[in-house]
């Protein structure tokens, strides 16, 4: 069914909200990973276990939140999710103990997934219509990357304000004071975006009836599960998401292997985020004018190539140029895959009215790296300090890229026409 496209401000709001929901639990930890470990008194494994608690709660949230997105307007679910997420930031700013921190991550797993994830994907698919899915999801992920980069830049700026002339390190208390300001500023912006979403994220009224179901039946869930495209998407998203989780270690790699200081390593994490909008927009536009499934497969090949540069130990303190080239290569592959894997739902004959249910079921498997990737990376990094642990992490990325690439090839063969 052809749907009339919603206004441009809708995709802009989706971009803002789509990244704002994940700034507190993930982006800050990605950009400021060394600082987060210090101010909360954690090691890599403990931080990974916080992400696992998030993933476990998210697992059930995907399952039940997906059908919910097929019954209620996206703007209401998303706005409430943003407000609840921002509220958690107030607790985060108190630097709670490890047990409370894990509970907080579980809370965020509920607010950002049960009420938010499937509505965002469904609204984006509606905005793209039947002929611009690549552009819709490319703009969404690329725009989210730009928003994340701007949040990261703002955070680094706020954090650097306390760095006095000639100093490169802060005391624990100074680091906490600086990071607290970053958290509070972020929480306020997230809540403000929730207000914008509530009042202005309105899709074309003529499309409301066919995209909202009165009830979701077991038969409809079975119908979605039996689609071959759903199984392949589960594998592709799982592999691509492992790659996305591994980008969390780039700031730590800069600190431990390239020997950068706290601010420089945070700048590396922020610089990485600026690659995402460029890749998202370019790949989305290009894919809509060619075989979108082929571009998805190529993205896994690129991420594998970049992972091998790190995994073979070629990137070290004396190879600054190669370090940034390798970061760019991995980021290009990972972000291209993220931009395209939901964009191929239209090719896979997944009914629009059941998009939320399909997203919930696919995400149930596809986003399990939220559970195991963090602890696995933490264990590998802590068990083999220095470059050895990082090499093991990037071997994991290389293997997942190969598996994801094979699934993408199968998808292309089945749905290329």
Describe the structure.
The chain has 417 residues and is an all-alpha fold. The chain has one domain (8-202, 214-415): Growth Hormone, Chain: A (Up-down Bundle). The protein has helices at 8-31, 33-39, 44-69, 74-92, 98-114, 117-128, 133-160, 172-200, 208-211, 218-225, 228-246, 250-256, 262-288, 292-311, 320-340, 355-366, 369-383, 387-415. The radius of gyration is 20 Å and the shape is globular.
Question: Would you kindly provide a brief summary of this structure?
Answer:
With 417 residues, the chain is mainly alpha-helical. Helix content is 78%, strand content 0%.
Furnish the topology, listing elements before pairings.
Elements: H1 8-31, H2 33-39, H3 44-69, H4 74-92, H5 98-114, H6 117-128, H7 133-160, H8 172-200, H9 208-211, H10 218-225, H11 228-246, H12 250-256, H13 262-288, H14 292-311, H15 320-340, H16 355-366, H17 369-383, H18 387-415
